[in-house]
Amino acid sequence: MRCDTCLTDMPELRTAPATPPAESAPSAILATALTILRSQTMAISHLTDMYLKDSFTQNHYVSAVQLIHNALLSGGKVVISGMGKSGLIANKIVASMNSLGIHATALHPCDALHGDLGVLRPADVLIMITASGKTPELIQLIPHLPGGLPRICLTCTPNSELANDSNAVLSADLPKSLNEKEIYGVPAPTTSTTACLAIGDALCISLAEMLTADQEQRRKAFIKSHPGGAIGMPEQQLSDVMTPWTDIAFIDADADEIEILRAAAGRQWVCIGDSKLYEGSELANPHFKSKGGVSVDRLRRMKATDKVGSVKPGEIVAVIGDMNKVIGIFQA
After folding, report:
1. At what angle do helices 85-99 and 215-225 cross, to 10 degrees?
2. pLDDT exceeds cutoff 80 at 326
3. DSSP single-letter state for residue 311
4. What are the contacts of 37-43 at 24+ separation with CB within 8 A?
5. pLDDT band for position 223 (50/70/90)?
6. DSSP assignment string, 211-242
7. Which residues neighbour 122 within 8 Å (Cβ) at sequence distance 6 or greater?
């Protein structure tokens, strides 16, 4: 039979005290936070100074960007690998690259040794992330990599086994004073991961600018890969989602079903008889009814819109809207 009184009287089952111990006072908690934030700030400041003044760091960074650029131009991709926290950083860099239109994928070192090495092709480039520069799982990979595969090492230890065995080094080297164990007595990755992540972000933007010099083109590529969320939606311009009149398929009013389906294939919009505009997906529907569509005459009577993206005012004849949804554009 259950006895609640007996249970509550048992010392091991009593509720923990609500008041934290003295060492967890607000001032102590904030002091720890400030120590970590200052150390992270100092780490980034050190990297900035190193990349500004150190020729070894500069030369290897440029070489790394060029190796990746050449791989991408030859049809290859960026493969990034790391263990533990470095693996999480690899995933973040891969995500950033893909959002910028740079073909990249992550490769877990252990999975690589169990079949995932097949993701690597001779035209690819491999980035290994390792704070120590001697991660055993990455070292075990090297004998099994495709011959001639360019290797880049992103590391906090540029004079290390993996760094010395790479074609280029992305240095995230930090002084001993910014080593985690020196800062708070435990080697839990904080400054080292911040350093590697910052260099990874710099690499992503450097590559994006090298691949596409025009900022507007880079913006459009980013929005195409990242249309949703708080980042994507405000950046979208009407010109990014509308179809130019020159990209619309035209067919005669007496076109048969086969001709209509052919016109709709791969086209967002089809104009039938120069009078009605239909969505390609609408025409492909077996229950399509010609009574729908948008009247071209009605659209041509609409007033020109203001500037849309890079299109100057007056160049647009009409913006087509249906229930507040932008579906196309007529151009003069």
Report:
1. 110
2. no
3. B
4. 39/178, 39/183, 39/190, 39/191, 40/190, 40/191, 40/194, 42/178, 43/174, 43/178, 43/191, 43/194, 43/195
5. low
6. H---HHHHHHHHHHH--SHHHHHHH--HHHHP
7. 76, 146, 147, 148, 149
pTM, two decimals, is 0.66
**8 A C-beta contact, residue 280 and residue 267:** yes
Orientation angle between helical segments 191-211 and 55-73, nearest 10 degrees: 50
pLDDT tens-digit profile of 175-221?
Answer: 999 999 999 888 889 999 999 999 999 999 999 988 887 777 777 77
> What would the pLDDT profile of 289-314 be if each residue is shown by its tens digit?
666 666 666 555 544 444 444 445 44
Residue 211: per-residue pLDDT = 82
- In whole angstroms, what is the distance from residue 204 CA to residue 211 CA? 11
Assess contact for 111 and 87: CB atoms under 8 A: no
